[in-house]
Amino acid sequence: MLKTLSLLALSIVLVSSVYKEKTYTVGQIKTPKGEILFQLYDETPNHKASFIKLANQHYWDTLTFNRVINNFVAQGGCPDTPAGFSDSPYLLKPEFRKEIRHIYGAVGAGRDNNPEMLSAGCQFYIVQNKNGLARLDDKFTVFGQVFKGMDVVDAITAVKTDSLDAPLSPISLKVSVIQLTAKELKEKGFAGKIE
Which parts of the sequence belong to the PPIase cyclophilin-type domain (predicted)? Predict the structure, then answer.
């Protein structure tokens, strides 16, 4: 009897260790104003991999949302200056996709005016204009879409700023990647297609 129970327990452990529910990689930004969660697009693999790499290295954890403009974007990471972009750990070739546009909540990669339209690995922005920003399409790479926390982004872009659009009180970033199951995604408000 004891041997049968031991074999049954071992079978349950083996089956549960073999069957693991699929999880999805999600971008997470924690700020003093709340949490932002966003899908990372497989269609922009280099920007997705770059975001995951820098998040896992805690690259942004000492930085802030350094440029916020109501009805435009909340931008964070390296400073929006020539010196800031030159301090980027690397630049990425653009990954423009016709099916991915600058809609409300789109997460894109910042860049300077370089002719190759290379993205700064260190900088990202979230579109806060409810009508989107079509003028940025095919000029800046969109690599994600917020599905929870646009109220947080709205609050961030509503703060008082200086003449360079930097918040008068810094808004810190804690950027991570987390794994969520399909059920957890839906519970957190994700309405997209889950494969």
Answer: 23-173
In three-state secondary structure terms, 56 is helix
DSSP three-state, residue 47: helix
CA–CA separation, 27 vs 50, rounded Å? 12
Can you tell me whether residue 152 is helix, strand or coil? helix
For residues 165, 149, 147, 136, the Cα torsion angle rounded to the nearest 10 degrees is -10
- Residue 87 has what pLDDT? 66
Query: Do 124 and 108 meet the contact criterion of CB atoms below 8 Å apart?
Result: yes
C-alpha distances (whole Å) from 140 to each of 16, 41, 135 are 44, 15, 10
Length of the chain (residues)? 195
Dist. CA 122–CA 47, nearest whole Å: 11
**For the segment 19-61, what is each residue's pLDDT rounded down to a tens digit?**
688 999 999 999 999 999 999 999 999 999 999 999 999 999 9
